[in-house]
Amino acid sequence: MDSGRKNENHYLCDHVYSLLKESLCVCVVLCLTGRPDASQNNLRTSAYEALMDLIKYSAKDCYVVIQKTTQVMMDRLRQILTVDAGGQLSGADKQQLADLESLICATLQSLVRKVSREDALTISSSVMEALLLMFQTSAAGSSSGVLEDALMTVGVLVEVLGEDFQHYMEVFFPFLKLALQNYAAYQVCQAAVGLVGDLCRTLTAKMLPYCNSIMEIMVDNLSNAAVHRSIKPQILSTIGDVALSIGSGFKVYLTIVFQILKEAAQLNVTINKNDFEMVDYINELREGCLEAYTGIVQGLKGEEGSTSGHLQLMTPEVPFLFQFIEHVAKDEDRSDGVTACCAGLLGDLCSAYGKALLSELQKSPSLNIMKLLQEGKSSRTKRTKTLCSWALKEMKALQK
């Protein structure tokens, strides 16, 4: 036998061995998840976690196993949802079923990330159909953990399908609205806010028909004292995503949004330096404000740069933005993320307004701002370092 034939046979043997090994491992783990005693000693959870690792680290030549496992998970989810739809379960049985739904959702997330785009498009309708049924049963008291996992699974579909997710928006949007309004289960609301950001970044201007409802709910949540405070910085940041996605279409929201952002930016609280939780929250709030302003500037600027007439709607806010950044720059407890956001906003303002910003740069007491940018250039975080260097470059370019 010649050496070429030997190498070919060796490759085939390796491929078959890899495939058989992966198939055997997956089959064993799947059997463990279905054992009658799987709910004891955390066996089912551990088995599903092992399955997710097998999926994540599987070799390319084991793709057929991924395809078959996806079908198994879809079949299991349909079966569980059929049982849950009866509404006759209660107590421990219902909780056990909810835990299983969450595990299958998490496994589906791993699988959808692993399959090819072609296969993702093929299975997406079946996955969305199952997820929509999960959202429907949630009205009958499904676990908030299940809702959160279902929203995260939708997020993975958005990530993989891209603009093709638009096909599902009309049927999915009513459930997204309910999740945004469900601030009592704040983790569900938080997942929904994050998903809005993903949708805006993916669908861009195609989100415009849904923005009135989204903005109304998010603005209400910001002003509602009953809403968990951890959600509010993320809402502010997501407002920036909305602004960037719909561009000039965001101008109808500017009055109320500028008012909200000013109130959040000017929040005066006496912070105990040892209250690390409050220090972190103030930093998160400021980061959210800065990201919102950045999204608005970029959205109003559009592709044509500073000649856009819509950018002038932002002009009255520019002096306040410099005051806000100056105030933040003086804070010794500001986070690295806040520094990066300050630099990003400054760079965008310079890029958008050009020489028209010179007067503001000259009258603003910029020593603290320059110090912030210089410190950021020495940051260990690549993003902060890059943004601060870029902002300094943009500012110097205007002064030439």
TrEMBL record:
InterPro entries: ARM-like (IPR011989), ARM-type_fold (IPR016024), IMB1_TNPO1-like_TPR (IPR058584), Importin_beta (IPR040122)
Boundaries of every Importin subunit beta-1/Transportin-1-like TPR repeats domain copy: 28-366
Record localization: Cytoplasm
Main location: cytoplasm
The keyword Ion transport belongs to this UniProt entry's keyword annotation: no
Domain of life the protein comes from: Eukaryota
Keywords: Cytoplasm, Protein transport, Repeat, Transport
GO biological process: protein import into nucleus
Cytoplasm among keywords: yes
Pfam families membership: TPR_IMB1
GO cellular component entries: cytoplasm
UniProt protein name: Importin subunit beta-1
